Amino acid sequence: MTHKICKECGEINSGSARYCSNCNSSLLDVKKTEQSTEPINYSKVQSIAYSSDTVTIGQWVGIMIVLAIPFINIIALFVIAFGEFNESINNFGKASLILALVGIVIAILLRGCTGLL
Ligand SMILES: [Zn+2]
After folding, report:
1. What whole-number distance in Å separates Cα of residue 2 and Cα of residue 35?
2. Of 17, 30, 53, 97, which sits 20 to 30 A from 73 (CA to CA)?
């Protein structure tokens, strides 16, 4: 006997259920769980959710290496800002893009003023 635990409200539904019987949210991406009387460990669920939102040191190192490469880093910034990444990485990418664009605009303006095109 399997069951599905609703992610939204914690209701225990049958293993074949597609929608929660309590709150009607989709159970399609909920894994079937073996029947047990054990209560849901919310602190464990929260720690998993938290860790998935945290960017690991390895990810940051990878991002910084890519951003250290000239020209590639501009493309990488767009990928980082708008790609399927963690929200923190997306925000970092967008912030870096804004700063890069400001830098480019200032560089163009300065060159225009000094006539060193
Ligand atoms: Zn529910």
Report:
1. 5
2. 53
Look at residue 32 and tell me whether its pLDDT is greater than 80: no
Query: Ligand 1 center to residue 87 CA distance, Å?
Result: 26
Q: What are phi and psi of 17, to 5 degrees?
A: -65, 140
Neighbours of 21 (CB within 10 A): 13
**Is the pLDDT reported for residue 117 higher than 80?**
no
Ligand 1 center to 102 CA (angstroms): 47
pLDDT reading at 19 higher than 90: yes
Please give the distance of CA 5 from its chain centroid, rounded to a whole number.
24
Centre of ligand 1 to C-alpha 99, Å, is 43
